[in-house]
Amino acid sequence: MSKLNPYKKLVFQNIENALSDLNAEDKGRYFICNCPECNQHEAFMYKNNTRFIQCNRENHCGSRMMLEFHEKGDMATYEQKIEKQYPNLTTEQRQALDWSHRVFSYAKNYFKSEMLDNGYRGLSKQVTRDFVADLQDEAIVQHVFQKVEPLLNKDYSNNSWMCKRNLIFPLYGEGNTLDRVLLRSSIDENLDPKEIQLIFNPSIETRDFFMDIPQDAENVVVSESILDALSFREIDENVGIMALTGATKTRQVKDYLAKHKDQFADKSLIIAMDDDQAGWKATRDIVNTIEDDGVGENWSVFEYASGTKDANENLQQNRKTFTKAYEQMATRTKQHERVMAVEHEP
Predict the structure, then answer these.
(1) DSSP string spanning 144-170?
(2) Could you give the angle at the alpha carbon of 117 between the alpha carbons of 115 and 118, nearest 5°?
(3) CATH 3.90.980 occupies which residues in the chain?
(4) Beta-carbon neighbour count of residue 31 at 10 Å?
(5) Three-state SS at 196
(6) What is the CATH code of the structural domain delimited by 89-199?
(7) What is the pLDDT of residue 2?
(8) pLDDT band at 119, cuts 50/70/90?
(9) What's the mean pLDDT in 123-144?
(10) How far is CA 13 from CA 39, 69, 74, 96, 99, in A?
(11) Residue spans in the chain of domains classed CATH 3.40.1360.10
(12) Which of 37, 80, 251, 338 is the most buried (most CB within 10 A)?
């Protein structure tokens, strides 16, 4: 090791990979990590200097290491891959898209959020951590807007109304591409509208719905918003979820159901739009596609408790009743499947 450079160099593709490999644990201003030298979980890395890590066992190890990301020799290959994936974007836009993808993944996994950890709108930490990032502070949101301005073609960084939207819900398309971002606020929950959508990938027609369907899911809920969808995941960790980004945005969901009906061949669909006029229309549109194209084993419409109009309201106001209603519907669905199977036996 050179006297001019007393630190060992560690090379990672990005900060997310580094934190994952080092088993980083969020402690607020810093991370506690596995020391790459002695492998004890006693090394620390400050968030304002993620290129330096030091073992806290000074009398036993005390190693100090510098982190580097995207080793120079690999950058050309990496940039070619991004350019091939997004040929219609400028270099500046590709860099901004890659940056935002990594930052949102980093924030979801490694930003300690007291608000999300204590539950958000009836949702537990276990449910939110995979789908929601809390940027926590207006200054951080402002910095994000500055970095992604090439993608949005508009600078929101000086717009306080936008910078208060600290909750980030990334929506991914085919190939895990970052397509859209839904923004909400826990800083000021009186903001209207409560949710803002921004297209982050101007090179394609971005996916305008959210989807997460486990391989062994028996039921798939189609809801009007991501919070409603996650409300079902809160009471059934194996339920598949599809969420619109608005009651009028049914076209892409219907196209996906029709084109990928084999994916739903052994699954039951539960339609859970809002209990209002726009939700009823969306329900009819989706049910027509399910019936016309033969999607899934069967379908049913979720019935909300009296006085509530969506799943998240149900979850917050009476979790027990909401859970019971879902379990009863899932049971009826299984019974229907058994009857259908008997009727079709040779």
Answers:
(1) HHHHTHHHHTS--TT-HHHHT--EEEE
(2) 70
(3) 89-199
(4) 22
(5) strand
(6) 3.90.980
(7) 37
(8) confident
(9) 91
(10) 21, 5, 9, 16, 12
(11) 209-343
(12) 37
What DSSP character marks residue 68?
E
Strands 30-33 and 43-46, bridge-based pairing: antiparallel
Non-local (6+) Cβ contacts of 240 within 8 A are 212, 213, 214, 217, 219, 220, 221, 267
Tokens 């969020």 map to which residue?
26
Helix H or strand E encompassing 45: strand 43-46
Whole-angstrom distance, CA of residue 78 vs CA of residue 84: 10
Instruction: Give the Cα separation of 231 and 131 in Å (integer).
Output: 12
Q: Of the ranges 54-58, 120-124, 286-290, which one carries the lowest mean pLDDT score?
A: 54-58
pLDDT of residue 334: 57
- Omega into 193 within 30° of 0, i.e. cis? yes
Query: Which is nearest to 104 in space by CA: 186, 16, 187, 189?
Result: 16
Question: Mean pLDDT across the chain, nearest whole number?
Answer: 86
Are the C-beta atoms of 237 and 285 separated by less than 8 Å? Answer: no
Which two structure tokens, joined as six digits, stand for 339? 């009857």
Q: What is 209-343's CATH topology?
A: Dna Topoisomerase Vi A Subunit; Chain: A, domain 2 (3.40.1360)
Residue type for position 179: D
Phi, psi of 72 (to 5 degrees): -50, -40
Give the Å distances, CA to CA, from 112 to 22, 105, 143, 231. Answer: 17, 13, 18, 22
Q: Coil, helix or strand for 6?
A: coil
